[in-house]
Design a protein that fits this description.
single chain, 283 residues, alpha/beta, Oxidized Rhodanese, domain 1, 2 domains, five-stranded parallel β-sheet, 10 helices, 12% strand, globular
């Protein structure tokens, strides 16, 4: 049975030597792009290979397409093949930030047609707290061929513009409340949020130990956030399409399938001063 949302540290430990499993380290820091490679070189889960959020899980930004635009699908599939991922592999992604960066890879693999992908619940922090094995040894990679097909799991800027204030579409912003209201903006040139979007910070989906809250709690969380709105009408946003994947994963864990990602998110939206900007706590 494939794992398609999250996987426990205990389960991953049982499969460290399983050739059918591929472990991917996605550690990252939005303000320090050297953080992930540096930490990987120091220590990582045995067998893990590293993919960089900026270089491997994003296309080239040009100032108007967001900070982490999606890469060209064939290029991404070649990246997957280069680290040994094919359609038969169970992929496990992890990071050190509650799963937000790992969730980006989780969503992208689903985007290109691969369901057997899960985020390590609790990430590298939980792995180390449990005194599980770590290494600085880089694994010998066996390249594979990843033959996928893009699914319509996301929306683009034109869709968001066309559906502003559409009651059938609900934009959910995963950023911290202070960024949503426009009180501060540490990463993008404009503060605020897309008009009509509601705020649900992705920090709310985790428990105190950094693992995802149980499915029942997540269902209740999303019931409070969404009310009677249907999951199929939800479009997740954030600053650049990373934390939004975290919220999308939490909805899948809760059994609320069908929501989509706006990868360009706020960083793409606010790049054009002609687009409207909302501030304050109201959508």
């Amino acid at each position: 049975m494939p794992y398609t949302t999250i996987v426990s540290t205990a389960t991953l430990a049982e499969h460290l030597d399983d050739p059918a499993w591929v472990i991917v380290d996605c550690r990252h820091d939005l303000r320090n792009p050297d953080y992930g490679p540096r930490e990987y070189a120091k220590s990582h889960i045995p067998g893990a290979r590293f993919l960089h959020v900026d270089k491997d899980l994003s296309g080239a930004p040009h100032g108007r397409n967001g900070r982490h635009p999606l890469p060209d699908p064939p290029a991404f599939m070649r990246t997957l093949g280069a680290v040994g991922v094919d359609r038969a592999k169970q992929v496990v992604a992890y990071d050190a930030h509650g799963g937000a960066y790992a969730a980006r890879l989780w969503w992208m693999l689903r985007w290109v047609g691969h369901d057997a992908v899960a985020v390590l619940d609790g990430g590298f922090g939980k792995w180390l707290r449990e005194d599980r094995p770590e290494t600085s040894e880089v694994p010998v990679l066996r390249p594979a061929t990843f033959d996928g097909a893009v699914r319509a799991l996301g929306v683009d800027l034109a869709f968001v513009q066309a559906h502003l204030r559409d009651p059938a579409v609900t934009l959910v912003d995963a950023r911290a409340a202070e960024r949503y209201v426009g009180a501060t903006e540490p990463l993008d040139p404009v503060a605020g949020h897309i008009p009509g979007s509601i705020n649900s910070p992705n920090s709310a989906i985790l428990g105190p130990d950094g693992t995802f809250k149980p499915a029942a709690e997540l269902r209740e969380h999303w019931r409070r956030v969404l009310g009677e709105r249907r999951a199929e009408g939800v479009v997740h946003t954030c600053g650049s399409g990373v934390a939004a994947c975290h919220n999308l994963l939490a909805m899948e864990i809760a059994g609320l399938s069908g929501s989509r990602l706006y990868a360009g998110s706020w960083s793409e939206w606010c790049a054009d001063p002609a687009r409207p900007v909302a501030t304050g706590p109201r959508p």
